[in-house]
Design goal:
Elements: E1 2-10, H1 14-25, E2 30-33, E3 45-48, H2 50-59, H3 62-66, E4 74-79, E5 85-89, E6 101-104, H4 105-113, E7 121-122, E8 127-135, E9 138-145, E10 150-158, H5 165-170, E11 176-188, E12 199-204, E13 207-213, E14 218-226, H6 237-248, H7 254-261, E15 269-275, H8 278-283, E16 287-288, E17 291-293, H9 308-330, H10 335-368, H11 373-391
Length: 403
């Protein structure tokens, strides 16, 4: 079976759904293809910083989440070696700045999906190949589905994650392993946890961890550690929990261990931290003809600045603005003008994405510590006191409004 569409988005994650919402708000309908049989929510939760809330405001969905999740105004970093505690303020220079809010990932996906018509998302669509064809003097994207169906599109947006087939078609190089892995989970306290709305982090030699209350009953926790590219705990949540408690976090405070003990095992994940080298984003093809990428497909990064999901929301607003302006000025998706709109979008996002990848990697490398005395001193005496706030200022970026 063969069908033709105006805009096809590959992937129903944060970037894909947000892009579809942005396009809807500028009057353009998109079809979202998702390989899973339902909305996927790997990672359990994520923290959305002010730049993400500005993007969600532009998408018209922020109110669905701010009524449920409270902001964190400050956090604490505990050095496990010395016991020293540093306080970090999350309030910005602007008087109206708000702290980050950590949300259930599935709640964010649902908030976005609810804005779309029921026929906008097609599940169980595994992409096997992509090609470009000439059609009536212009280029169209041809998407081949595993079930034999073929979908042709005037515009194709790859939001298909770290190992994006669309990014590969554009010629972007594969991701590389950072040398670290991340464990993530959601702890549930039916009777309430009684903790303040504050971010707690712990740094040791080669390990960094922390937790953030989501609601009165749920706490999101994480741990990053040095690990080989292949980890032996990927498919066994009970083994993940045991390995964290008995090995990686055995010297952590009792409160942290208790939170890990209360984990909902279905939310636990252990995954290598991958990223695309920043100079390859700065110099790579982020768009070609009528095909482009957004979110992790464009700029996979380590989570050390909490900007993976936030920057995906920025991408959606910027792409929606460029396509919306193109449609408004030309009365539709005119091929040559669409190519320019996608190129302008890629140009606007290129250096922002490059800096986020580099800043995230640097932040993680320094905070990770390791065994070198000089690096520990730099982290504790210089990085947290003077550099972290400047690097973290990226969270106050405003991607603008939709047309």
């Amino acid at each position: 079976m063969e069908m033709m569409g105006d805009i096809v988005i590959v992937g129903a994650g944060i970037a894909g759904l947000a892009t579809a919402v942005a396009l809807k708000r500028v009057g353009v309908k998109a079809l979202v293809l998702e390989r899973s049989d339902e909305l996927r929510a790997a990672g359990a939760a994520l923290t959305l910083f002010p730049n993400a809330w500005l993007a969600l405001d532009a998408l018209g969905v922020s109110h669905k989440l701010t009524s449920i999740y409270a902001p964190s105004i400050k956090g604490y970093v505990t050095n496990l070696g010395t016991g020293a505690i540093q306080e970090i303020s999350y309030s910005g220079a602007k008087s109206d700045a708000i702290g980050p809010r950590s949300v259930h990932r599935k709640a964010l996906l649902r908030a976005l999906a609810e804005e779309l018509p029921s026929d906008s998302i097609r599940f169980s669509c595994k992409i096997t190949a992509i090609e470009a064809q000439e059609h009536e003097g212009s280029s169209i994207a041809v998407v081949h589905i595993e079930d034999g169906n073929v979908i042709k599109a005037k515009v194709l947006v790859g939001c298909d994650g770290v190992h994006s087939i669309v990014a590969s078609w554009l010629g972007l190089p594969p991701v590389v392993h950072s040398g670290r892995s991340a464990v993530r989970g959601l702890a549930v306290f039916p009777q309430g946890h009684g903790l303040k709305q504050e971010v707690q982090q712990f740094v040791g030699a080669g390990t960094r961890a922390g937790f953030i209350p989501l609601t009165d009953n749920d706490i999101y926790w994480f741990l990053t550690c040095t690990s080989p590219a292949r980890d032996s705990f990927l498919g066994d949540p009970k083994a993940i929990q045991r390995e964290v408690i008995e090995n990686y976090a055995k010297d952590f405070p009792e409160l942290y261990l208790d939170i890990v003990e209360h984990s909902d095992l279905s939310t636990l994940s252990w995954a290598p931290l991958m990223f695309r080298q920043p100079w390859k984003v700065a110099l790579g093809n982020l768009s070609k003809q009528n095909i482009t990428v957004a979110g992790d497909a464009m700029h996979p990064m380590t989570p050390d600045l909490g900007q993976g999901g936030c920057s995906a929301l920025e991408d959606a607003v910027v792409l929606g603005r460029h396509i919306g302006a193109c449609v408004l000025q030309n009365g539709g998706l005119v091929p040559r003008e669409v190519t320019k709109a996608l190129s302008d979008y890629a140009g606007e996002r290129r250096w922002r994405a490059t800096w986020l990848i580099a800043g995230s990697f640097l932040s993680g490398w320094v905070q990770h510590g390791g065994s070198m005395w000089g690096l520990k001193f730099f982290r504790d005496a210089i990085f947290y006191k003077f550099l972290f706030r400047r690097i973290a200022s990226v969270v106050h970026y405003d991607c603008g409004k939709l047309a």
